[in-house]
Design a protein that fits this description.
Elements lengths: L3 E3 L5 E9 L5 E6 L2 E6 L7 H14 L6 E5 L5 E6 L4 H11 L2
Parallel strand pairs: 2-4
Antiparallel strand pairs: 1-2, 2-6, 3-4, 5-6
Amino acid sequence: MNWLQRASDGTVTLTLHAQPGAKRTEFVGLHGEALKIRLAAPPVDGKANAALTKYLAGYLGVPRAAITILSGESSRHKILWLQGVSEAALEKLEGEAKS
């Protein structure tokens, strides 16, 4: 899967397609080579990015500081770098791509 890449140091690179302004925050499967996520936050003043990192941190069981947006701060196409994600959490995330 190109949207989820694991490094030998235990970190993960995640490619997302974000859709801000949705009714609720949820994963909705693949969108090309990215995992699509709807965000219940507007795309203004960094609110969507804050909602994204908060949701991912809770979903994956990591602190928000373990998530870094590498690219796409002001774009729907985002690449994130994650630290300390358990194998079980990654399997749960991979399951979202199949839905």
